């Protein structure tokens, strides 16, 4: 899957994530918002740490690790967006689709569909 769209394609794509009517429409846009490899890697690290925090919260029976997991996931992703991708995360305008996109991209990185 080629996630780097030509500049002409990016110009014609909707810039407001709220314009998408389904996640299937949103996900290709989501991937163009993650064309920077470092940003994708930071998302991947943050998502992995989040999963580990959820597992540790269950194992240790310490729900406070759920908050740590949330901070890891969003913290790494936002550093990727503001520091490397130079855009605003879609989670500000489309939180559910963005959350779903995070996990779809995480899966697609594991499956080799999105370059790591």
Automatic annotation (TrEMBL):
Pfam families: Mpo1-like. Signal peptide: none annotated. It comes from the Bacteria. This is DUF962 domain-containing protein. The chain crosses the membrane at residues 42-59, 65-84. It comes from Acidovorax soli. Keywords: Membrane, Transmembrane, Transmembrane helix.
